[in-house]
Amino acid sequence: MKTNFAVLLLAVLAVLVLSCNQQPSSTNTGSDPLPSWNDGTSKQAIIDFVKNSIDSTSKGFVPVADRIACFDNDGTLWTEKPLPFELFFVIDRIKAMAPQHPEWKTQQPYKGILEGDLKAAIAGGEKALFEMIMTTHAGMTTDEFDKTVKDWMATATHPKTGKHYNEMVYQPMLELLNYLRANGHKTFIVSGGGIDFMRVWVEQAYGIPPYQVVGSSLKTKYDTTRTPPVFIKLAELNFNDDKLGKPVGIHQHIGKRPVFTAGNSDRDYAMLQYTSTGSGPHFGIIVHHTDSMREYAYDRDDKLARLNNGLNDAKKYGWIIVDMKTDWKKIYPFDEKVESELTAIDVLLNPDKTMLDSAKVYNEIMRRNYAGPGSYSLDALHTPHITVLQCFVKTADLKKVYDEVEKVVKSEKPTNENLTSKGFYYFPYKELGLAGITINTTPNLLRFQEKIIEALKPFIVVGTDAAFVQNADGTPIAAGSSEYVNGFIPDHSGAKYNPHVTIGLAQEDFLKELLAKPYNSFTFKSSSVSIYHLGDFGTARTKLWTSTE
Predict the structure, then answer these.
(1) Which value, in Å, is the radius of gyration of the alpha carbons in the chain?
(2) Which of 213, 216, 209 is nearest to 254 (CA)?
(3) Backbone φ/ψ region at 500: left (φ over 0), alpha (ψ -120 to 50), beta
(4) Among residues of the chain, what percentage have pLDDT more than 70?
(5) Is there a single domain that holds both residue 236 and residue 257?
(6) Are 36 and 172 in contact (CB under 8 A)?
(7) Cβ–Cβ < 8 Å for 5, 233
(8) With 80 as the cut, is the pLDDT of residue 474 above it?
(9) Are residues 246 and 300 in the same domain?
(10) Model pTM?
(11) Whole-angstrom Cα distance, residue 511 to residue 424?
(12) 303 and 361 both lie in a single domain
């Protein structure tokens, strides 16, 4: 739920002062498609609709070509409090740009933002707010804007949870998106938020490609005076995809009436109504924010995300009111209330800047070759590292594991060891390869691994994919991951140890060419030892412990 940039920012600050397209044709009946939903009428209604939509003998059958599902974003797929996240971006960008604009210290509305005086910042009304939006969204190429958003997403964190904003997605809705797609429904975002802002990150977060995003937009100019030509974002509103604009956006961008729509406020009312007044089967969901403990609670009296007419007319149109507090077992993917009893861990060496810089260079090369599902940047969520041991342990034993590793680190002092890179390797995965920079083993490195294994053997157990950090978009952990970790000691230790720094996914043919080229080795050291919770493709996803050496 978002509105015209300037109007929305005005309302918010005033309050503060005051896909894959072709999918299988049948549901998976062997497991719960919505595990983070509590059993009840909401969950069952969703399952019934989806099952009927693919049953050609049912009155609820929907031809594949008509299986269009539209989702609002803010408050429907991710959190929108205490501010819609794009507005945090506006404020943060003004602060970041301020050193290049000393005049802002005395010029409103920037002076108010820089001093934390929101009342002064919005005193100029919509005109002042539109100026701030244009300052942070326009006057640059679309590629420059994409990079700015991507960099912000990688560093900015939510004021309540401390999580990155793209981690604040709703796990039950990720499961719903996947369930619909698995049954032939195309999923679209239809949001009042900036279309260019969303397109940068929604595919990784939701599995929805950029071309299935409908949002508010600025006018854009194709500039042929540059080589190559570029798109320039102009300081002029092109389309406001909010309220009555949402059905218009659907008509203009998608060209078909949805059969499934989800929203969370009266700003989504027109979109829900448009879906529900069409002929044939249809389904509407309103996410009702009722959980003040795990998220936020608001509805009829909220100045920004008021949910009044939607609640009043839900029965009339047959909309399902999803009660966040009672219908959802968990809110976010990182919610500890549905935590595995086991944890997949990686005991690793943190390489110094020399290796980090090299790994990031090659990661960029990997991502230029392949940017599809599974591709990732080396960042805080995918930390470059040298694995010493991967294994499963009981979550309750983690503190004991940390203590044992600390003892080994103090006795063996692995950060004193000089290490040398020697080339590349890759692990085949379908038509791709998971690549890395290999490192020469040394007697001291092998001894360190041996001591770590010896210390942790009493705690090692057999585990499954549930012990990994689960993917935010609900997709399963890559096939073979659990087998790799369970077999790490016999298959990847001692004489079989292959120390390396993983650099990403690429096409296998590309990697074969890369391995055939001459390689310039270099020397580096480790800065520390850490234990991470493993994520998909063996990535070091969440730091659990770091040595004090």
Answers:
(1) 25
(2) 213
(3) beta
(4) 93
(5) yes
(6) yes
(7) no
(8) no
(9) yes
(10) 0.60
(11) 9
(12) no
